[in-house]
Amino acid sequence: MRNFYHWLHLWLSVPVGLFFSIICLTGALMVFEKEITGVVLEVAPQYVETSEITGTPKIPFFRKVRYLHRYMLDKPAESGAMTTGKMIVGVTTLTSLVILVSGFLLWLPRSRRGLLRRLSIRTNRGWRCFWRDLHVSLGFYSAVFLLLMALTGLTWSFGWYHDLTYSLLDKRVLTEKVETHAEMRAVQRHKSERRPGATDSGAAKNTARETRMMIRNLHIGSIGGFWTKIIWFVSALIGASLPLTGYYLWYKRLRRS
Fold this sequence. Notes:
Blueprint: H1 2-31, H2 33-43, E1 49-50, E2 57-58, H3 60-71, H4 84-107, H5 112-118, H6 127-153, H7 159-169, H8 181-189, H9 202-220, H10 226-256
């Protein structure tokens, strides 16, 4: 089975690796968007603009980062619509679930000695061994957090996954079509059209809003405050490095063979 897991891990990683690095790197940049915006607002307010939808201060740089993170800069003309870039992000995120699980199965050691080796990074065995340990060990340490990011991030990519996730978290959301983050805030400030099939239940609205905030906080790491944001930030940076070290190991293996 290990050969199968290795084959699965490798040949799923090769086509989506660079996209995964971009998603993780841009995600890491956005973890502290609120804090960075606050500092820039005080130091250089000319670089901050006010969102027309939410009325909150925004830095244009982070808008580009968000578009790259969610749509590969291929933003849909209408909210909720699918574009090529959005599909690439969704497929990459969905594929990353299999990659992370198969990577963990490959990581599982067969002995105590193997466990200690896979939890450490050796620096005295050559560059190839160093990069391999870096890939294996850091991948293990960040796997749980990357899985949480992927599982929550998919709610912005696919409508079917969005509805399934919300319905599983709270049955009262089954009758409530939850708008995207921008739409939710627009509803608070303006009277927008309700989607077909939506109810006027205030309880369902509140539940949907709470569920969405919980998923968002899990996705960006603010579920536990500043310290969990640091963990999510570091994990996202590790996630961005994993395809690069993986490509290097694959290249070295191809050269050897």
